[in-house]
Amino acid sequence: MKVFAAELIGTLTLVLFGCGSAVLAGDQVGQLGIAFAFGLAIVAMAYGIGHISGCHVNPAVSFGAFVAGRMDGKTMLTYWLAQFIGATIGAGILLLIASGQNGYDVAINGLGQNGWGTGYLGEYSLMAAIIFEVVATFLFLIVILGSTNLAAPTPMAGLSIGLTLTAIHIVGIQVTGVSVNPARSFGPALFVGGHAMSQLWLFLLAPLVGAGLAGMKARFGLLEKDPS
């Protein structure tokens, strides 16, 4: 239950702070500020709950750990349940706060949902969105699995992971709004509905593909230092 609660709270925080920066403060902080909000949320939770659950707060991270042989399937499903619930609660809290502003309409202003194509940020194509989400998640998981290796300087893991997520957002916000996290995409899309829900499949599947590739790399020892 401690692990479940930690993952729920961590994912809730990521969605509330990350998506909240876009919805509540996007005009003030810009895309760079939004990128740092996502990254700093991860850094904060890494040191807040990392000792309890490892601070996955992302089904793709848990899947990558499973493929790498660091987690069994039953535990992964427990993490997934906590993460999706946490993301949904986080998006719900954000909606309640945003609705307190006169003129806010979730169908128009959204909740920081992911997407692609005509009318969405940089209007990138479906293929561009797929490539970005798979590659970005792969690289994100390489950093996570490498940083949390027993041979790595683990006290710095939270910072390296958070800064990597920041860099990913700086590069990719205009492409998809950046998912690399199925739960982060699910929560906002559930409340926004419509187009956001119809495009959700990409943000559920592409991060898992990228995470699975990184997990395989770790499973075969390609993230391990050769013995001297």
Automatic annotation (TrEMBL):
Any one of the GO CC terms: plasma membrane
Keywords noted in UniProt: Cell membrane, Membrane, Transmembrane, Transmembrane helix, Transport
Gene Ontology MF: a single term: water channel activity
Pfam families hit by this protein: MIP
Database matches in InterPro entries: Aquaporin-like, Aquaporin_transptr, MIP, MIP_CS
Principal localisation: membrane
Superkingdom per UniProt: Bacteria
Membrane disposition: Multi-pass membrane protein
Membrane-crossing residue ranges in chain numbering: 35-57, 77-98, 124-145, 157-180, 200-220
Subcellular location: Cell membrane
Protein family: Belongs to the MIP/aquaporin (TC 1.A.8) family.
Name of the protein described by the UniProt record: Aquaporin
Organism, scientific name: Hyphomonas chukchiensis
